[in-house]
Design brief:
The structure is a homodimer.
Chain A: E1 5-10, E2 15-22, H1 26-38, H2 40-44, H3 48-64, H4 66-77, H5 81-104, E3 111-113, E4 127-133, E5 137-140, H6 154-162, E6 166-169, H7 175-191, E7 199-202, H8 208-215, E8 221-225, H9 228-240, E9 247-250, E10 257-259, H10 261-280, E11 292-295, H11 300-312, E12 316-317, H12 321-335, E13 341-344, E14 353-354, E15 357-362, H13 363-368, E16 380-385, H14 391-397, E17 401-407, H15 415-422, E18 425-430, E19 468-474, E20 495-497, E21 500-502
Parallel strand pairs in A: 3-20, 5-6, 5-8, 6-7, 8-9, 10-11, 10-17, 11-16, 15-16, 17-18
Antiparallel strand pairs in A: 1-2, 3-4, 4-19, 12-14, 13-15, 20-21
Chain lengths: ~500, ~500
């Protein structure tokens, strides 16, 4: 065990508190990964129902530990209890959705093409394909969702659902939540009779840990939610390996919102209220925060609403000192640019407290100051006064985004504009707010680079496919096939047989 | 137009012949890619039936040009007419299969989750997800399949099926086939009323062309079939971009075959005959050539069969001088290693003619000479005498493979061994030969690195998914949705609505 330790820091007062957590050493990480790797074959071979039961058991263990989890999470993150409780529930639901998917076998994508002597251009042997787990996965949790995108969040849950052992790099902003969550998962594994080796955690603030995990030979993929800086570092590290591995990095986004003149006329104030609430939700620390709002009409009514909402909003703690420092610096630097209105409260540096800041400017100004088109994590949003004719140019100049939103008037025929938004984002929202990422099959949480490193979703049931790869079994005797591909379909899963989907 | 030109070379006599082809210039490549990009939106918006019709029309244009295509292909590749004719048919079938898939809309993976006020943990808005084309694709054809993996081979066909414009780097070993194929595609586009800009070709031997294509800002993905050297270069180039793009590279493999003692006893001679034929098929220039054969028993009967088959096999031209030179050098260098039996004919250097070479050695010898575990393109195969107990160690040491094959005796319970083979390969074959890649839904042609750069297949209908990415449309009015997601399902495609698959 390392002699280096660290404590959690309470963002409300900026003070370290509680338990000393040991920094994971290279030896500990190596040993944990070896154990992960040694357990991979047995874990991959679990029956569908055993795997589904495990995911459900983890959910119920989280529920049992809910009071303790929420208590320590509140101290470590400054997030209000109500939201933390909702996030625990969401994390349970994520696990339960993957459990339901695993029970149906849908994640296996089983396809059977029977032998066909008349197949063209050559006779076809019996061909049966299914997804197999790719092997041990390293997950890097995010600071802003201590449950849903952390230790047993979507990345870990989908990797376990795929059949991959997982090692989590606990986010150093919430070591206590991570430890309690890890223990809940271990209790679930034990009660299901599965080796605890399939799920490991490493604590620490040492940046070398990231390198150890990304470069470990046995690690087959990385799941990450966080900053573009660390995400790009992980991509670079994993591409530099002798055997490169995929990095599924969700690196945040500006989530541009476009408001037409008709929308402003019809409901400008309510759109402003909706987007204000969306922007300051979670102190603006959501990856789907609306960071850019383009108003294709007079923006004064919109801005007036923002000003008035600002008066009522309280200050909120940011998640950690790094985020606060970068936020304060960004706001300071952006405030020095002339010709920009800044709507904000006072920024305090006691604890990690900050107030939201909206910047308001003309399109000409926006175009000449690219720093406004960069992500500034925390409660900053840029409002740009432009005309609807500018929307296409803005979209063409935009980098990849998790979401893009359009507000239009009743029955405005804006299908072409919406199609263009689909070219820059993973999710296009009509007349809504980008925050609120529904955990559902139709969710696509991931967009073009740099919002994500791949064309996959990290939220919703399709996230499981990131950690599987297809393997074809050709000319097999039935009893040598994996159960999912056997003729009798013993697990009663959905399969496509000679082009027809059936159970 | 460049002043640099080159001719095709006939591999049978090693002489250049026929037309002078202009080396594509940077300006031409840039202009073609700009045109590709400008045509992308309209091409993506084609209806499913228009896109399917195009793919079918390309197939029929290939059929109409078949005589000319086969004639020039024979001159440029030295491949016999019968195989070339079969390959034209296969290439047509690939296009027709993608057309059928496009008609059903299965490649869109349409998922609809209706608004649900009771959804947990928060009300769900109307969420509708489908795959969209990722944009212009650069395809690098292979020399060894002048039709099926070349100009309008699987990569191009699947990219067009996805809705992506394509620029092909024609393989300089068959510029004439590439040009005629390009013209056939252009006729199909014209007859379907689609801009010819969506399909471009660049000829040349200048290695810079690869860099121009991989680094062009408008290119969104690369499809490649060929050597590990060029495949890895493409991966490196595309990762170095400001916006990295996916490279779907199929880089070949050794395709290990394992033969148990029981299999040898029951049918050793017929297995040897089957694997010999598989190894020398296409002069050993298939990416699924069995390059390593491990015999877990006395290998003399097997080797005796190889010796006797060798007497009857004729010499075959290799595809080009580069392949021949590397083949001759490999064989020469491997022959200098002591304790290795070499079964071969004489290697001629008139034209690009070569005879197959089988190397035979003990497992101890194989282990101490890693050069035998590398891919040597052309008709070389290594036979290793070992025991069945060694199989697990061999598999554990193996790099990623396109295929892995096991020959067992009747009712041998080798399920665990087959499972292990599935960890190193994209396709596992029981009691068969690795060559013969059926174009079917259950095909997985792609395996762990370095056989492929991603966990995807380049053969079969799933290849289309490489060139699409999911986008969610949230809270849309029905008439603003793409047709595939509209409530009335005007294209009658298969969709999953609230978890239930239906049309």
């Amino acid at each position: 065990m390392s002699s280096q330790t660290f404590q959690a820091v309470n963002p409300v007062d900026g003070q370290p508190f509680g338990k000393e957590y040991s920094e994971g050493t290279h030896g500990e990480v190596t040993a944990a990964i070896s154990a992960l790797s040694a357990s991979a074959t047995a874990f991959a071979a679990l029956s569908l129902s055993d795997r589904a039961n495990l995911l459900e058991k983890i959910a119920s263990e989280l529920d049992s530990a809910r009071a303790d989890l929420v208590k320590i999470a509140e101290l470590e993150t400054g997030i209000p209890q109500a939201r933390l409780n909702g996030e625990v529930t969401r994390t349970m639901i994520q696990l339960q959705l993957f459990a339901a998917q695993v029970r149906t076998g849908a994640h296996l994508n089983a396809v059977i093409d029977l032998a066909d002597a008349d197949y063209k251009p050559a006779p076809r042997p019996d061909m049966r394909k299914m997804n197999l787990p790719i092997g041990p996965v390293a997950v890097f949790g995010a600071s802003n969702f201590p449950f849903a995108f952390s230790t047993i969040g979507g990345d870990s849950a989908s990797a376990l659902a795929a059949g991959c052992p997982v090692i989590v790099k606990a986010h150093p902003s919430h070591p206590g939540v991570s430890e309690l969550t890890f223990q809940a998962v271990q209790r679930a594994l034990k009660s299901c009779g599965i080796s605890g080796d399939v799920f490991a955690i490493v604590q620490g603030r040492n940046p070398e840990i990231t390198h150890w995990l990304a470069l470990a030979e046995e690690i087959c993929a990385v799941g990450f939610t966080g900053s573009a800086g660390v995400g790009k570092l992980l991509v670079k590290l994993c591409n530099s390996r002798q055997i490169p591995i995929p990095v599924y990095a969700e690196m945040g986004s500006l989530n541009p919102v476009f408001v037409t003149a008709a929308a402003m006329t019809e409901r400008g104030v309510s759109i402003a209220e909706m987007l204000f609430d969306s922007a300051v939700l979670g102190a603006g620390q959501f990856c789907t925060k609306p960071g850019l709002i383009f108003i294709g009409a007079d923006h004064e009514p919109f801005v007036a609403t923002i000003r008035s909402k600002m008066e009522s909003v309280g200050s909120q703690p940011l998640l950690n000192k790094g985020i606060l420092d970068r936020y304060v610096e960004s706001v300071k630097s952006l405030n020095q640019i002339e010709g920009v209105e800044s709507i904000t409260g006072s920024v305090s540096v006691e604890g990690f407290i900050a107030q939201p800041t909206f910047f308001v400017m003309d399109y000409a100004h926006f175009k000449t100051h690219p720093e406004f088109a960069e992500e500034h994590f925390g409660p900053t949003t840029v409002i740009v006064k432009c005309s609807e004719e500018d929307f296409e140019e803005i979209i063409a100049q935009s980098q990849g985004q998790l979401t893009a939103t359009l507000h239009i008037g009743a029955a405005e025929p804006k299908a072409a504009l919406l199609q263009k938004l689909a070219t820059i984002a993973g999710r296009v929202i009509l007349n809504g707010a980008p925050t609120g990422v529904s955990v559902t099959a139709a969710q696509s949480h991931g967009g073009p680079w740099p919002s994500s490193s791949t064309h996959t979703t990290s939220v919703g049931t399709d996230a499981v496919f990131r950690f599987m790869r297809p393997v074809t079994f050709q000319g097999f005797a039935d009893d040598l096939l994996p159960p999912a591909l056997q003729q009798a379909n013993p697990e009663k899963i959905e399969r496509v047989v000679n082009g027809v989907r059936r159970i």
